[in-house]
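User: Working on a comparison across species. This one is DUF4386 domain-containing protein from Streptosporangium algeriense. Can you predict its structure so I can line it up against the others?
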Amino acid sequence: MFKDSADFRRVTSGTLLIVAPLLQTIAVIIDPGTWGDDREAVSYGDNPVLAQAQSALYHWAYLLMALAAIALLHVMRRRAVVFGHVVGSLTALGYINLSGLLMIDPVEWWLGRRNSPEQAAEILDEMLNLPGVVFGFQMPWIFFAILGMPVLLAGVWRAGFTHWWVPLVVAVGYGTSLVVPYGPASVALWGACAVAIGSLGVRMLRMSRAEWVSHYPTDAPGRTTPDSYANTTA
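Assistant: Here's the predicted structure for DUF4386 domain-containing protein from Streptosporangium algeriense:
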């Protein structure tokens, strides 16, 4: 199976869509800040092992979500092609920036061990409010992930690959998480998003090779498909 490029891409894409949001859900479940004080300076002191584990899980969840966003572009090769490539690229950039922001966690842990939580928060705010940090790493890039994924999924729905409830659930889940305090509610919100996004991964894994290859626009001049490429190199 993995000697065939089409099957390899199908299995990899489906796996990414399942694993990436699942890692995010596991991260919020084991995060000490979910069930107590959500400030990293405090939650690290409550349980240093789980605090480091959740931070690493978030980091890899966001990196893999960037790849998952790109993987979704395959099912948009015949409809909403330009829309998919623009939104998909911005969404991937957003997740990469979210991943980079996870390096803030050890800084806040270090500050929390040497200062009061209030002092640690004040020092961190001064660091994060530097213009280079705000516009280089935060704004508007991180919102490309939070808002970009529901929009990208809307394109996937319009392309006919999924039902309407998938982009709706993700839009409600991610959108609500922006206004609801980080805590137990985040588990339900991100868990729902993981189910919705994961359903796309399950569908991809259940597709046959022929179904996967059918998303290549074979009738478009100049487009290369796995089969046409094999014929030219045989």
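For your comparison, note: The chain is about 75% helix and 0% strand.

User: Helpful, thanks.
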